Amino acid sequence: MHAGNSPQCFPAVILAVAAGLTPASRGSAAVLAVPEDYPFISWAIADAVDGDEVVLAPGTYHEAIDFLGKAITLRSADPCDPEVVAATVLDALVFPYAIRCTSGEGAGTVLAGVTVTGSSLPDGGAMHNGDGSPTVAHCVFIANSSYGRGGAMYNGPGSSPTLIDCAFLANEANQGGALYNDAGSNPIVIGCLFSSNTTTYTGGAVHTEGGSPSFVECEFVLNDAHYGGALYSLPGGATTISNCRFSFNSSFGGGAINATGDALAIVGCGFTENFGAWGGGAIASTDADLQITRGFFAQNVALDGGALLEGGFARSTLLNCDFIDNVATSSGGAYSGIESSPTVMRCTFIRNVATAVTGGAVQTIFGDVTIDDSTFTGNRCGYAGGALAAGRAVVRGSTFTSNRARRFGGAVWILPGRFAILADTTVCGNVPDPIAGAWQDAGGTLVSDDCPPPGPDGTDP
Fold it and tell me: What per-residue confidence (pLDDT) applies to 135?
């Protein structure tokens, strides 16, 4: 309903069954209507028992809501109708909290199909999950704020909610413009949209403090922070991001994602037109275990590392990724690493640019880079290493064509005192020269100013 690739809408009864409340366990569940049966939501919750549903008629409700540890559903008349969701509004106004789950609530506690807005609290502007792991589905959190953590939602230690098909719009905080996941919080976020959320410090949309959240088929767009325009992650957990899209996010470091010391697995995600002012147009990481598979990076911009910037002793793996038209105004048009030692396998680098200095596609300075079965075409830089500028490099089964450097090393530049090993690799048609610096052919490598003509079937000979 909210994210472009979100799952179908699930009515509340299906959510209850998914949470383990089978028809038998729900027994003679009651429907408590507000305001028909109860003038206030809190009165209906007080009377409800596990398995009951509290159903809200369209309207605006100025209340503070506490689920009191009950496995009940609080929902609009039709969580699957966006117009009904927009017309069913929770606004806490001056109350000390808007929605809270602090009594051990589990997945059987369901909030579905409402809009939450206008709340401003220190931890979780709209919803505080202190010791609860509810299910939140088809909800809109808009224009909430926190002068502390989690403009829309705070998830405390041990709180691991499931968020399905929700939209987080224009929320703001000091940390975690939409969500703040404290240490030990492991939320599951599916098919959600995070747009135009902001922070003054970390995680324009999401801040994770060492937990192990997972994000599946979510969209992050136009979020902004000082670090981690969309997502900021600290050590102590393992964040998983699958089939998500990041676009037009911005920050000082890590336009979309900033990770420090975390284990971060990214699978099947796209990063387009994100901006990292000093580094990592899409992702900036330090001492992180970064694993990216089937990633697509296009038109991201930063000072260093147009798409990715890594610092510390990171050992990232890039597998089956495409880097196209990314720009670094200094070095590393697609990737820049200082002491990191990345492994690049079956990746494509096309038309990436390091405007001023080195590494039109990839730059590594003090670490080791290993490149296998990858293609570098049409990359360029303002000084040396049109495609690759490296300290130590092992390159196997790869192709470098039509790359350009202004001074030397049209395809590859190896720093003075360092060396590279190339095997079964083709380096041709690069300007002004193929390779600058010390290197060794381990066999099967073709280095030429001109590329051989294609074979009769149009393939390389």
Answer: 98
Three-state DSSP state, 214: strand
What are the C-alpha distances in Å from 280 to residues 79, 277, 301, 374?
39, 8, 8, 21
DSSP structure string for 150-168: -SSEEE-TT---EEES-EE
The amino acid at 327: V
pLDDT tens for each residue of 360-398: 999 998 889 999 999 999 999 999 999 999 999 999 999
Concatenate the DSSP letters of all residues of 350-404 into one string.
Answer: ES-EESSSB-SSEEEEEEEEEEES-EEES-EESSB-SSEEEEEEEEES-EEES-E
- Say how far apart CA 307 and CA 297 lie, in whole Å: 6
- How far is 352 from 279, CA to CA, in rounded Å? 15
Give the DSSP letter string of 72-125. -EEEES-TT-HHHHHHEEE--TTSS-SEEE-S---TT-EEES-EEES-B-SB-S
The values of phi and psi at residue 69, to 5°, are 80, 10
From the list 325, 327, 246, 350, the residue with the least C-alpha distance to 280 is 327
pLDDT tens column, 273-283: 999 999 999 99
Q: What is the rounded CA–CA span in Å between residue 156 and residue 376? A: 45
- Would you state the pLDDT for residue 139? 98
pLDDT tens for each residue of 151-195: 999 999 989 999 999 999 999 999 999 999 999 999 999 999 999
Among 34, 47, 129, CA closest to 76: 34
pLDDT at 211: 86
- What is the C-alpha to C-alpha distance for residues 131 and 68, in angstroms, rounded to an integer? 11
H/E stretch holding 319 reads strand 317-319
Residue numbers of the chain with a pLDDT score lower than 70: 1-8, 10-28, 454-461
**Closest by Cα among 123, 115, 117 to 96:** 123
| Closest residue by Cα to residue 234 from 248, 217, 254 | 254
Q: How far apart are CA 336 and CA 342, in angstroms?
A: 10
Tokens coding 415: 């720093």
What torsion, rounded to 10 degrees, do the Cα atoms 380, 259, 295, 346 define? 70
Query: What are phi and psi for residue 305, nearest 5 degrees?
Result: 70, 80
> Dihedrals φ, ψ of 132, to 5°?
-140, 150
Nearest to 205 by CA among 156, 258, 159, 157: 258
88 contacts: CB under 8 Å, gap ≥ 6: 56, 57, 58, 59, 76, 77, 113, 114, 115
